[in-house]
Design a protein that fits this description.
alpha+beta; SH3 type barrels; three-stranded antiparallel beta sheet; binds zinc ion
Length: 69
Amino acid sequence: MSILGTCGARQLTRNFGRPECPKCGSTLLVAEKSEFNLKGGIRHAWSCDECGHQFATAISLRPFVPGQI
Ligand SMILES: [Zn+2]
């Protein structure tokens, strides 16, 4: 029995924060391009392998504060 057979590929990839294409719902695995700026922001550019739709996601990192998790 494989792990994929037990849990399903979609469920496994969702746990790693991979986005789904807003057009067709396919899960994307690797960003086409990633940019980091000095304010702590990270922008990922994605291109869907299934339908070719291109979109971007952005996250902001929290500043490090000693003693806080
Ligand atoms: Zn798509």
